[in-house]
Amino acid sequence: MTTMVEKVARAIAGERAEPWDNMNEDERRSWLETARAAMVAMRGPTRGMVEDGYAALMDWDARTGEDKGISDTWVAMIDAALGDKNAD
């Protein structure tokens, strides 16, 4: 199972370097460190992320029993971050 850190590392490396599977362990470790740093920087949400996440969570219909609320909230918050909505 691929961790989120590895998923982000692969995405960053895919834009900048050779394919992940062709990299040696030191190269992969470097990209994993870069990904971890990027994710740590995103830990503190912007106001826009909080607002969009809250809106997505409030749209969730708890009667359905689906786990959409949290995943929709996460997507809304990341989308807000990618759009620099109300950047802090």
Main sheet record = none
Low-confidence regions: none
Averaging pLDDT over every residue, what do you get?
81
- Percentage of residues in helical conformation: 55-70%
Termini separation: 34 Å
Number of helices: 4
Task: Write down the overall geometry.
Answer: elongated
Structural Rg: 16 Å
Secondary structure tally: strands: 0
What string, H for helix and E for strand, traces the elements in order?
Answer: HHHH
Structural class call reads: mainly alpha
Overall tally of domains: 2
Strand percentage, roughly? under 5%
How would you describe the overall organization of this protein?
The protein is mainly alpha-helical. It folds into 2 domains: 4-41; 47-82, no CATH class. It contains 4 helices and no strands. The protein has helices at residues 4-16, 25-41, 47-59, 68-82. It is elongated, with a radius of gyration of 16 Å. The N and C termini lie far apart (34 Å). The mean pLDDT is 81.
